[in-house]
């Protein structure tokens, strides 16, 4: 009796599996018995090595140099938040000559129209560079830069670009390399406001003079507010000497860290120039314009001491006036160092105590 169709269908997978298994064993036997390649290997003759042309080598070298230059670029972090207020130690200032003209409506009836509570300034910075560069970077804050001029010891150097792409940084790019150990100077003109309500940088403050409401202008540049008064490298390690010329309304006086060398008045303006300061950090720059009276005394070594205060408070400065010379003498003896300046002054106001001399 022939097998049924259902039984044949059930055995078919087993037959296929047995046939496949036999084929695998046969293939293994052939590979072991006849160890010859079943696939012809085509031998390809070695190709001629690629010769790099001098032009491509130059391109590769240029790329390497650019990569190295990029990794060594001291300004590469300038656009990063943690680095925005720090300037690489490449430009080294030696002298700042600062001229400030203050439009201060110091008493009722004195006004300069739209210029009230503003200043026009000019700064000349003498410097050298530690390595060849075309980039000069300064700190600025709320300053409107109106002119920039760069000089070497003999002539003016063209400035290619001026930018303020990063907060509180002014970038100046020269048309030629600035070389180490050569003398350069940079002159900048600018305008700024002087009515900072936070008593930081340069600010104005009201005070009473009899029945009049008057204004004085003063500075508080710690820790990094010199940049709001004039363009500079506003880092404590970037020390330099300072010369100040202050142009202020007739009827007011100007104070600086150093003694006055000349005072002249013309056309409603008084120009006061001062001695050059010792080497110091930018935040120690201090100035005042006002009309507050003072009391004066001298130490045994001839250091002039003045205490400035509002007229109705002047008699309250007796203790400060008597103690200051004694304290100064004590610290000179304790540290065995003489006080280095010719004067020391303090301006006492209802809003702050301002040190005029450092």
Automatic annotation (TrEMBL):
Gene3D superfamilies: 3.30.2010.30, tricorn interacting facor f3 domain
Domain of life: Eukaryota
Organism classification: Eukaryota, Metazoa, Ecdysozoa, Nematoda, Chromadorea
Name of this chain's protein: Aminopeptidase N-like N-terminal domain-containing protein
InterPro entries in alphabetical order: Aminopeptidase_N-like_N, Aminopeptidase_N-like_N_sf, Peptidase_M1, Peptidase_M1_aminopeptidases
Classification via SUPFAM superfamilies: Leukotriene A4 hydrolase N-terminal domain, Metalloproteases ('zincins'), catalytic domain
GO biological process terms, semicolon-separated: peptide catabolic process; proteolysis
Provenance organism: Ancylostoma ceylanicum
Aminopeptidase N-like N-terminal domain boundaries: 93-284
GO CC, any one term: extracellular space
Signal peptide: none
GO MF: metalloaminopeptidase activity; peptide binding; zinc ion binding
Classification via Pfam families: Peptidase_M1_N
């Amino acid at each position: 009796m022939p097998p049924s169709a259902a039984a044949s269908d059930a055995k078919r997978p087993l037959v296929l599996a047995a046939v496949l298994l036999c084929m695998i064993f046969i293939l293994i036997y052939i590979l072991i018995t006849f160890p010859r390649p079943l696939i012809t290997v085509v031998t390809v003759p070695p190709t001629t090595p690629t010769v790099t042309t001098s032009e491509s080598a130059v391109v590769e070298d240029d790329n390497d140099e650019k990569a190295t230059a990029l990794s060594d670029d001291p300004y590469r972090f300038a656009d990063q938040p943690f680095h925005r207020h720090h300037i690489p130690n490449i430009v080294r200032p030696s002298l700042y000559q600062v001229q400030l003209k203050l439009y201060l409506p110091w008493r009722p009836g004195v006004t300069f129209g739209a210029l009230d509570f503003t200043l026009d300034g000019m700064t000349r910075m003498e410097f050298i560079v530690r390595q060849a560069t075309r980039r000069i970077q300064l700190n600025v804050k709320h300053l409107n830069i109106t002119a920039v001029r760069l000089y070497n010891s003999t002539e003016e150097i063209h400035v290619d670009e001026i930018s303020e792409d990063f907060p509180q940084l002014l970038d100046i790019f020269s048309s030629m390399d600035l070389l180490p150990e050569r003398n350069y100077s940079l002159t900048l003109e600018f305008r700024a406001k002087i009515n900072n309500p936070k008593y930081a940088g340069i600010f104005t403050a009201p005070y009473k003079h009899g029945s009049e409401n008057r204004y004085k202008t003063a500075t508080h540049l710690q820790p990094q507010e010199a940049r709001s008064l004039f363009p500079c490298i506003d880092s404590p390690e970037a020390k330099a000497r300072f010369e100040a010329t202050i142009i202020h309304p007739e009827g007011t006086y100007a104070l600086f860290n150093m003694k006055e060398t000349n005072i002249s008045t013309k056309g409603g303006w008084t120009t006061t120039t001062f001695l050059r300061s010792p080497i110091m950090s930018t935040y120690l720059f201090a100035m005042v314009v006002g009309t507050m009276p003072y009391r004066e005394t001298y130490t045994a070594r001839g250091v002039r001491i003045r205490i400035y205060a509002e007229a109705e408070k002047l008699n309250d400065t007796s203790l400060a006036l008597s103690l200051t010379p004694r304290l100064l003498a004590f610290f000179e003896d304790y540290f065995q160092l003489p006080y280095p300046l010719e004067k020391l002054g303090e301006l006492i106001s209802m809003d702050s105590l301002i040190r005029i001399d450092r």
